[in-house]
From TrEMBL:
One of its GO terms (cellular component) is cytoplasm. This is Protein GID8 homolog isoform X1. Residues 61-118 form the CTLH domain. PANTHER family: RAN BINDING PROTEIN 9-RELATED (PTHR12864). InterPro entries: CRA_dom (IPR013144), CTLH/CRA (IPR024964), CTLH_C (IPR006595), LisH (IPR006594), Ubq-SigPath_Reg (IPR050618). GO terms for biological process: proteasome-mediated ubiquitin-dependent protein catabolic process. It comes from Gossypium hirsutum (Upland cotton). It comes from the Eukaryota. Pfam families: CTLH, LisH. Coiled coil: none annotated.
Length: 226
């Protein structure tokens, strides 16, 4: 019950927070990590100039990575594959799962554009051989080909494959693979820290009533309610 919790006043809580020393350099690195990982190259360059914080990769590679991601998001899968190979051919050579996902997305785009014969030929020549070697690939191929059975894809059980969210999912996987090939974290650190903050507050809520952050967008402390 709330009455059994320890009550921590705003004054005491803020005093405790102020006693926690965080170096500005570490905060700057956290911001730079987010900008680089998410691909905000112009913001990263401006932040580098203003804060003196140097990214751990060449900012020029961010532009190349974002070009790959944008190509996938726009459905230009062949262009994306070409750009990936220009960056590093080993990315797809060592990641058959990702290569299949890209080829599956290419098949989806052919179906989306009504190129039925080309889609069937592409599936048979490029994807079917891979499905014979991997059961999960075969299942995904069968799901994708089933799109051709329905004239109205809104009633298709796998109609979500034609959603833009499917492109975004593939683009995210590509982005992560490129980052990994560059020896960079595939996910920014900031969201993980925010999740840790939420978890810590949830744990503390069981024992104390204190000013907490309910809205992460403004990070304002709010007094506890009873």
């Amino acid at each position: 019950m709330a009455s059994s919790k320890k009550l921590i006043s705003r004054e005491e809580w803020e005093k405790r927070l102020n006693n926690v020393k965080i170096r500005k350099e570490d905060m700057n690195k956290l911001v730079m990590n987010f900008l680089v990982t998410e691909g905000y190259v112009e913001a990263a360059e401006k932040f580098r100039m203003e804060s003196g914080t140097h990214p751990d990769i060449d900012l020029a590679t961010i532009t190349d990575r974002m070009a790959v991601k944008k190509a996938v998001q726009c459905g230009n899968v062949e262009d994306a594959i070409e750009k990936i190979n220009d960056l590093n051919p080993e990315i797809l050579d060592t990641n058959p799962q990702l290569f299949f996902q890209l080829q599956q997305q290419r098949l989806i785009e052919l179906i989306r554009n009504g190129k039925v014969e080309e889609a069937l030929e592409f599936a048979q020549e490029e994807l079917a051989p891979r499905g014979e070697e991997n059961q999960s690939f075969l299942e995904e191929l069968e799901r994708t080909i089933s799109l051709l059975v329905f004239e109205d894809t809104s009633n298709c059980p796998v109609g979500e494959l034609l959603d833009i969210s499917q492109r975004l999912k593939t683009a995210t996987e590509v982005n992560a693979a490129v980052l990994t090939s560059q020896s960079h974290e595939k996910d920014p650190k900031l969201p993980s820290l925010l999740k840790m903050l939420i978890w810590a507050q949830n744990q503390l809520d069981k024992k104390a009533a204190y000013p907490c952050i309910n809205d992460l967008s403004n990070a304002r402390l709010e007094d506890p309610t009873f």
